[in-house]
Amino acid sequence: MHWNTRDIIIGFGAGITVAIVIERLRQRGSSRSTSTRQPTSVVPSSVSKHLPPPGIGIESTIGHTPLIIVKSLSQATGCTIYAKCEFLNGAGNSPKDRVAQSIINDAESTGRLTPYSGDTIYEGTVGSTGISLATLARARGYQAHICMPSDQAHEKSDLLAKLGAVVERVTPAPIVDQSHFVNRARNLARAHTEDANTRGRGLFADQFETEANWQAHYQGTGPEIFEQVNGKLDAFVAGAGTGGTLSGVSMFLKSRLPMIRCVLADPQGSGLYNKVKHGVMFHSLEREGTRRRDQVDTIVEGIGLTRSTRNFEVGRDLVDDAIKVTDAQAKHMARWLVENDGIFIGSSSAVNCVAALETALQLGPGHSVATILCDSGMRHLSKFWSQVGGIGGEAKTTLEDILQA
């Protein structure tokens, strides 16, 4: 057969066309096969770039907690109301994780605690600090001995016992009484250290007075909030149990935002509201240090004091205002947040949110307010939430319920 030039060109072109078609069919089949396989080792870059590296121990879960916008309160006020989710600290699930870690770090650096030596940490607490200390004590090689008032929710003392701490529930008493839970812990720590027959030493954590408390929030919580709001915030609102959170955060934020408004949220029965508003804790006939009874009469746990502390005083001059919150207001706020946002919080967090709401209404639309969500409602089921009651299927609580209670 004779092939001329024209036939050769046509045949060559046809061969190339067929080769191209076959290759495209092969690639299409390969793509389909690949798309049906599930990836086993590739992590999307949007996930991997936000994940921290592995931490060492439970201590590594403390700090860097989320800051959220509380949608319902923000919509109701026209302000942006932020809540720092301190209940997501990973050791004791409260802002006291920061304090407990700071206390232990400071004691170790100064030689007052030595891991696995038999040293025991003693503290007088209404619950949250004790839980954080008990958790970190186990993680760092210590024992914990916790003294707490007997009127606190049993969830806290039960959890402390499960964490291996020795728990003493003592009868509530004023601070001038040596049977007060704080004095009891201090005396036990001293007796432990002085007893030559007892292994190790006793460390009184002293959360109300130690500088390690407010410094934990000045170095951690405050800078985190500042960064998370991109340096734009009009007010910070928090209650005071020891005063460390309010003082530490206020001191940092005021150093960066001199015009920010720092507000104390105070439950009924506490004297701190009067301390901020009028400069005195109580009437002159009931001056500090002379009280023979405990005036705090509230279902709110964790905040409120009948005396001033070093941690409160270090930042008191930076506190611009105080808002008194009733038990009824706290209960209504707790219901509101579940009904509208699915946020289940404890009593002190509810007080903070009431005060944040009132601060936002005072400032007016367009401003921003940050507060603290201290712990979950899970630790307040038997006391606070038993009075709040069940939540129905519909949102029924109103702002008027909260503000007028």
Describe the secondary-structure layout.
Blueprint: H1 5-36, H2 45-48, E1 67-69, H3 71-77, E2 80-85, H4 96-109, E3 120-124, H5 128-140, E4 143-149, H6 154-162, E5 166-170, H7 181-194, E6 202-204, H8 211-228, E7 235-238, H9 244-256, E8 261-267, H10 272-278, H11 310-313, E9 321-325, H12 327-341, H13 347-363, E10 368-373, H14 384-388, H15 399-404
Parallel strand pairs: 2-10, 3-4, 3-6, 4-5, 7-8, 7-10, 8-9
Antiparallel strand pairs: 1-2
Helix pairs in contact: 4-5, 4-8, 8-9, 12-13
How does this model look, in words?
The chain has helices spanning 5-36, 45-48, 71-77, 96-109, 128-140, 154-162, 181-194, 211-228, 244-256, 272-278, 310-313, 327-341, 347-363, 384-388, 399-404; strands at residues 67-69, 80-85, 120-124, 143-149, 166-170, 202-204, 235-238, 261-267, 321-325, 368-373. It has 405 residues and is α/β, with parallel strands linked by helices. It has two domains: 62-90 and 212-404; 95-204. The strands form two sheets. A six-stranded mixed β-sheet has the order 1-2-10-7-8-9, sandwiched between helices. It has a four-stranded parallel β-sheet with strand order 5-4-3-6, sandwiched between helices. Helix 6 (154-162) links the parallel strand 4 (143-149) and strand 5 (166-170). The chain is globular, with a radius of gyration of 29 Å.
